[in-house]
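User: Hey, my collaborator sent me this sequence without any context and asked if I could get a structure. I don't really work with proteins. Can you help?
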Amino acid sequence: MKLKPKKSLGQNFLVDNNILNIITNLGNINERSTILEIGPGTGNLTEKLISKNPKKIILIEKDKSLSLFLKKKFGDKIEILNKDILEIPIIDFQYKNLVIFGNLPFNIASEILIKIIKCNENFYYEKLVFMFQKEVAERIIAKQNTKSYGRISIISQWKLDIKKIKNIGPNCFYPKPRVLSSILEFAPKKNFIKFKEIQSLEHISKTFFRYRRKMIKKPLKLLFSDIEAISKKMQINLKDRPQKLSPDIYYKICEEYERLL
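Assistant: No problem. I've predicted the 3D structure and written it out in structure-token form, which is a compact way to encode the shape of the chain:
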């Protein structure tokens, strides 16, 4: 059965054996592990994961032809869902010792990550190991006061400790993408500020970075009636630009915003 990658689904199958081994080993998989793999493609990573003898492997594959191929290839070794990850409640995958892997389609990679972050604090997993376009990965891990720093940096770093593992060249994929990729490893933080609504943090970060070249005085005025009091409480300079504020300051601003609602 010959499978042709579909551009419409952003399919670039990972084929480099060394990279597949690196990703697999990041999961620290054992017989108690449950694996959730998003976008398994032709199952190259799946095969490596199965070799680690986890308790359970669940695959989510939107492409129907690939789903049928994977079921035929792996049989009862896997459970496969022919669904769109963006349309499935993540909380449905509540398992002990859960590790989530994904060579994510570049066009929806950020959405998938944010979807997992937005899941409530009762959803537990040990680790995420995801592949992103390098440019997106740089934005996710960006530090304050850098060019790449922005909304996704703030939201991603809210509940997750993030480590960049490796950049990956186009030759590691079929077909070859036109850009570099990066492997990121995410571990859930034990302590983070709990907001009433994740939408509040999304609103705060969107409001500030809509005016990333303006002084923060402008977005603060859109959020608070007394910006002098807020700036004094947060110990921030109203003349600073949004990228100057650390993620922790944004979380505190969000707390204050929800308190005043």
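In plain terms: The first helix runs from residue 17 to 26. You can pass these tokens on to your collaborator as they are.
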